[in-house]
Fold GON domain-containing protein.
Amino acid sequence: MIMPEVDNLAPCGIYCPGCIVYKASDNEKLAEKLAENMGVDSDDVHCDGCRAEEGKIDFLSMESKCETYKCVEEKGLEFCSKCEDFPCSRLYTFRNSPQPHNSKMMNLTLMDKKGLDWLMDNIEELTELYYFGDKPHGGDKLEL
């Protein structure tokens, strides 16, 4: 069973509180801006996170559970990185995403390398670095 403190880490490695849709759930101004940009009603801009929503985010017009979520669920895994097929094409970035999805590969890799406890202890700072870190070049090292 997954530890309660990691409920906001999706099976694919996305840290839900770092996502603009998740943030908009508790931020009316952000919800209105996001709704305007996506052509939906601001009352519909809501997500409690992948695990809480059981892999189906209604706001994103998903007709069924996320294929990645279903895969992990069917295999009885907590995270994609625990799969013998990791990494697979289900983890590719998809178009029109409200966030850069390559954060999931970084999080899954760090979790496997340094441990789940280390990742959760550092996830807020990692998310801040990921979205707002200032690196002069793409290959420059970020220290944590």
